[in-house]
Amino acid sequence: MRIRSARRSDLRLLQDIERAAGEPFRTLGMHSVADDDPPPLDLLESYRRAGRCWVATDPLSATGDRPLGYVIADPVDGALHIEQISVDPVAARRGIGRTLIDRLAALAPGQGLTALTLTTFSDVPWNAPYYARIGFRVLHERELTDGLRTIRGEEAQHGLDRWPRVCMRRDLLPAQPSAPTTTTTPTPNPASVPAPESASVAVSGAP
Questions:
Q1: Which residues contact 134 (CB under 8 A, 6 or more apart)?
Q2: Strand 79-87 and strand 115-121: pairing?
């Protein structure tokens, strides 16, 4: 699986992924979620231009470099907040969502961010229970930052509070400082004298 920054040519495909990812909610009676419009192109383009939109592709499969999933994120109160993450159902159960999240977890500490956060439905099997399995925990009301409270308020206005929702957080290890590099001059070793060009040399992994 390859994770790369989104391209402008990907954006309509990301909308298609979002529509497809909404369909499973219909089986739970959450029709308004299934029918919700995908993020508009100008919003996706703003994330792309800011360098905060990533896609997952499988170059070795028939889909080639076509996105199979995507994630967009914002810095919110010292954490990288996952605004949206969706995977095409035809590519489900291949670890794509986890791989996208792991990429964010690797990038965030280098930006001085100490955690990943998200909001999600608590009772949908592929929402909160899934995120709990990959290291997120539910935040209590008293733990919510101002930014998360604002996000939850916007979701409520959008009608998402018709079903129970939670904020979740995954704490990250701080970025490790790069070890200083030193240059040493190797001491000649008679045993390491190169073989003559005509000698036969075995190379591991040679065809």
A1: 98, 101, 170
A2: parallel
Q: What is the pTM of this model?
A: 0.83
Which tokens go with 121? 């439905």
18 is written with which tokens?
A: 């979002």
pLDDT confidence bin for 62, thresholds 50/70/90: confident
Torsions phi, psi of 5, nearest 5?
-70, 145
Q: By the 8 A CB rule, do 70 and 56 touch? A: yes
Query: CA 65 → CA 6, 28, 56, distances in Å?
Result: 11, 32, 9
